[in-house]
Amino acid sequence: MAQIPGEVDNMEGLPASNNNNLATRWESPDRGWEREQPAASTAAASLFECSRIKALADEREAVQKKTFTKWVNSHLARVGCHIGDLYVDLRDGFVLTRLLEVLSGEQLPRPTRGRMRIHSLENVDKALQFLKEQRVHLENVGSHDIVDGNHRLTLGLVWTIILRFQIQVIKIETEDNRETRSAKDALLLWCQMKTAGYPEVNIQNFTTSWRDGLAFNALIHRHRPDLVDFSKLTKSNANYNLQRAFRTAEQHLGLARLLDPEDVNMEAPDEKSIITYVVSFYHYFSKMKALAVEGKRIGKVLDQVLEVGKIIERYEELAAELLAWIHRTVGLISNQKFANSLSGVQQQLQAFTAYCTLEKPVKFQEKGNLEVLLFSIQSKLRACNRRLFVPREGCGIWDIDKAWGELEKAEHEREAALRAELIRQEKLELLAQRFDHKVAMRESWLNENQRLVSQDNFGYELPAVEAAMKKHEAIEADIAAYEERVQGVAELAQALAAEGYYDIRRVAAQRDSVLRQWALLTGLVGARRTRLEQNLALQKVFQEMVYMVDWMEEMQAQLLSPECGQHLVEADDLLQKHGLLEGDIVAQSERVEALNAAALRFSQLQGYQPCDPQVICNRVNHVHGCLAELQEQAARRRGASGAGPLVVALQVRVVEAEQLFAEVTEVAALRRQWLRDALAVYRMFGEVHACELWIGEKEQWLLSMRVPDSLDDVEVVQHRGRTNLSQMGVNSPKKALLAADGAELGPGLALDEWLPHLELGWHKLLGLWEARREALVQAHIYQLFLRDLRQALVVLRNQEMALSGAELPGTVESVEEALKQHRDFLTTMELNQQKMQVAVQAAEGLLRQGNIYGEQAQEAVTRLLEKNQENQLRAQQWMQKLYDQLELQHFLRDCHELDGWIHEKMLMARDGTREDNHKLHKRWLRHQAFMAELAQNKEWLEKIEREGQQLMQEKPELAASVRKKLGEIRQCWAELESTTQAKARQLFEASKADQLVQSFAELDKKLLHMESQLQDVDPGGDLATVNSQLKKLQSMESQVEEWYREVGELQAQTAALPLEPASKELVGERQNAVGERLVRLLEPLQERRRLLLASKELHQVAHDLDDELAWVQERLPLAMQTERGNGLQAVQQHIKKNQGLRREIQAHGPRLEEVLERAGMLSSLRSPEAEAVRRGLEQLQSAWAGLREAAERRQQALDAAFQVEQYYFDVAEVEAWLGEQELLMMSEDKGKDEQSTLQLLKKHLQLEQGVENYEESIAQLSRQCRALLEMGHPDSEQISRRQSQVDRLYVALKELGEERRVALEQQYWLYQLSRQVSELEHWIAEKEVVAGSPELGQDFEHVSVLQEKFSEFASETGTAGRERLAAVNQMVDELIECGHTAAATMAEWKDGLNEAWAELLELMGTRAQLLAASRELHKFFSDARELQGQIEEKRRRLPRLTTPPEPRPSASSMQRTLRAFEHDLQLLVSQVRQLQEGAAQLRTVYAGEHAEAIASREQEVLQGWKELLSACEDARLHVSSTADALRFHSQVRDLLSWMDGIASQIGAADKPRCPSSLLGLPACPWRPPPANPSPLTAPFPTE
Questions:
Q1: Inter-residue contact 66 to 263 (CB < 8 Å)
Q2: Helix or strand or coil: residue 197?
Q3: Cross-strand bridge partners of residue 180
Q4: What would the pLDDT profile of 383-428 be if each residue is shown by its tens digit?
Q5: Which residues contact 152 (CB under 8 A, 6 or more apart)?
Q6: Threshold 0.70, pTM exceeds
């Protein structure tokens, strides 16, 4: 360590301030190293500083002039100019103008020629004006300053030009904050970015950071690594570094050498000069980068051309393969030959489905890949501005789409054909199953009926045979009705054969078997009918025989009568009757012969014989015998007819006896029937009585039943009720049977009263049971509630007992245990809340159901909830008490601990043992430590007092115990303090001078021992040893400080104690010796610390280098790993890890830079340890740079992977969304009606709007794809394929949405059209009902009303119908024109609707015609009635005409009345003629009854008309005769009056005046005929 130079002394970390203090304390006042410097030295220093500043300014100005001169020459070299002195050559303005032209590229005003000052000022002004136009701010710079050669302003002008045209154009955009910097900051940032990672290069400015030359070499190495071997450069060899960098830039980069090494390697390099030179690097490397980018672009274009060629070849190959597969597949699936069985068709359909789901999607993916491939080809060609690729003929996308369309068409046809064939086969299979089922049923039925008709159990009597005949007829009817079913089997077989069923042979065999059995059955039925008819005919013959035998027996009874008559008349009567009997016997004998012959024919039948021939013969013989016997008795009767009256009387008595016996037999039968009825009645009375007793018993049980008070009793009662209910169900049929039996017995018995009473009791019992059952159900529910309530109450009582039995614990541990138990108790209470809720819900349910116990339940729940709230409140209160008790116990425990400590210290303070004097000092020191401990622990007392005060404020109920405890502790503490102080005074007085001497002696020994330890100067071979040595040294220094304080205390004690002179001298010697040894100990301690700190620094740096190198090497594999993850999540995780690594690197950067800086400072030392540090420094620098570069590369790679994975993730999300939407779009649900379809259409429109809105996401995805393609990502082809697939899916989704919308709209319009068609058809049907009404009117008025209403109806119907029909037809036409899928159905609807409308119009026309015809008919009858009434009225008027009411009617008035009457008849003539014409027309229309009625009514009217005419003629004759008579009488009166007048004139003397009077004639008796004679008759004759 002796070789360590003096630089290490400046690196000490800890100043020895304590040691300096000690030295200062013991330093003698003679030392003068802290005195002030004299004033003369201060003035000299100021003068030196001013001269130094001026020298630095001149040096900086010289460097700027040289640099700017070289810079100007480097630009003027382009135009062949050169300057030697910057200040002189810029004066005239020529050079300045050329420089500005070169830098700006613009033409400045031509300089003024001349060498005068004014010319120079003018040229400089032009240059300065140009700079002002370029927005260059020139402060305090004028043309005269440049012309005068002002150094500072000339340099400032050149610097301003450099800033404007070289530095201002620099703009660097950072990646962290995206801020844009300019000029100096941007250039500094560029330098930092380019030199990042280079060891020992840390550019923070443009001055000192460039002194060592490493920064220039780093810039060159960053862009041209082949020119500089940066690893061989060292920071210490600055001139070499600068010289190499400047020479390399000049020779290989063509950059003018603006600076020299001595211009940079100085204490304060010129900033502007360095900036000027660095700017030239910036512009050169920027230009080189642009050229490199252009070269890369050209190479990329060539690569793209080759890549596009390969992709085109691949596209054509894949397209040819796909087209060949499509054509081959179309040929295969176009084959429409299917298997002729359901299983075969299903296998073919499965194979087709497998093709659609397995083989086709792969080819569809290939087709999509082809589209993506073509899209990528076109995109790349379009990006290269090349002509687009046109596939060869037959291999284009359009050709593939066309072939794919043919494939899909063939698939559709294949699928449709397969589906149709599958449906056909399924139908055939179902038909075959129906056939088999029906065949099995028919065969079983045929077998059963064959067995039935094969049995000939006809019976042996006529009623049995007739019943068998009826049964056989029923069988025949059943069989005849079953023929259709058998024919159905044949039709099914025929249908299966027509459809080509694969198992038709079996079907045909089963059909033939059924038909054979059917034929056999029909044959058996016919044969059985024949046999049955033979049996029936034979039995009828046998019955006739029986009738004949019975008749013959009756005849025999009559023939055996002994009555022969009492007198002759009676005897003759008997003989006549007997003769009649013999005649009957003879007649019946012929019938008997016919019956016998008919019976014998049955015995001679061949084959089936209905009876044994012997039996027939026996019966025939029996009938013959009876007939012979009857004939014989008749002969005997005739012979014995003369017997006596005794025989007659006997016969009479026999007849009477027989009559009496018949009456007795009839009465006995009536008696037997009455007794049976009585027995049935009494039995029924017993049953009714039993029912009444059972009903009464159950009614009494129900009335006496009380609702139990326990759940078990309620369930028992319910069980008994269910048992009784089952008994009631059993007895109900008995009651119904009794009622039926009572109805059979008939009325009139007491049952008419008993049965209603029984029915009433039964209903009453049912009512009681229903009431009791409802009460039991409510009671059962209430008991269940009570059970839950009792459980809840038990829980609450347990809680209450647990809360009431709790006591407050007395220790902290017991309180904490109690708190834990109480928390568990609260948890249990919370769990038990469910039981409370169950009870509450049950009570609410009882109230909602209207239970009779609802109010009681609610009251019980209320009490339950109150008790629960009380328990909750008590639990919370107890929890609070426990918390209070816990705080109190904590406080008491602290008080107890403090109290124990006080008692322990009190014992120590009261220890009064006597010791030797040499131990008094130790006791004194221990007591001082005890007092210090007491002072420190006083805070404990204060803390407890604060806690006690807070506890009393928060918990007043604990104030008494807390206050008492605090008072006790304060008292103990005060006692302890007084005891301690008293003992301190006692110990202090006991130890005096001896203690001081002894203390100084002990300190001297300790200092001597420490001096011996400091002789060993080994600094240690490693960091741990050095650290242990430093710890030891620190402990020594601490010990020295402690000894220094102890010496001070001893000095104070010495000064304070009143010592004797001898003792005082001894103490002074000891004190001086200790002081001198303590001062001598300080310098070795400082030297030891310096050496140890230097050694520690070296070892620490080496250790830090190793640690940092290990840290870097540990993270280098993480930064250099190439795994990027599969998926977005994995990439994000890798990015997070890498970002964490970068943050860790960035955060660790200052630490590592600090280690590097420390290591760099130590690496210049010449020592073995420094050499190790140097090697570690180089390794760490290279590893650190590699780590940062690897992390950066890793981040860039992960960012690119993240963009791709994010794109893939977005594509997956888009595809998933598109798939979901496609599923929604592919829904086959079109609605069941118009409303549901409208709802579906609205939802679909919302879906379409969502799809439209999603277009922005697709566009964003496309932009991401283009960005990735422009980046030249390795997966560009796959990205392009995925993007094309997404675009295709989106387009397909939109097309599918359009199709779905069109389908829904068509379905909606179809439903709407269907509704309108249905409504219109219903409306037409309603109108057809009205138009087809058979009501034609009862009379003319009725039919007129009907016709008027029907006219309105027809008008309204026609108008409304035409409008609605036109609207529907227009709607149908529009939908058909739009290409609706149900166009055929709509056309059918339209045709049917038009036909219905035409039928309605036809029906209305027919109805109108019928009403018109009916109106004509009724009008005819009405007119006929009116005309007939008029005729009758006229006929009634005629007698009044012939017998006028006037007493003396005149002939003229009668004639006038008659003429008026005839005039009225003239009006009737036209009506009669119209009636005849109408009748003639109606007869051509009507026939049958209507025609007869018309003719009859016409005849009646004509008959009345004829009668009226005849009566009128008679009246005319009568009036004519009456008029004649009246005229005769009038003439007679006139003649008489004339004669009277003549007589009076004759007797007078007057002469006649009138010629007529002279002649003796009457005066003008003639009257003219009437003006309008009657057309029916000739005018009445006039006189």
A1: yes
A2: coil
A3: 173
A4: 777 777 788 877 887 788 888 888 888 888 888 888 888 888 888 8
A5: 61
A6: no
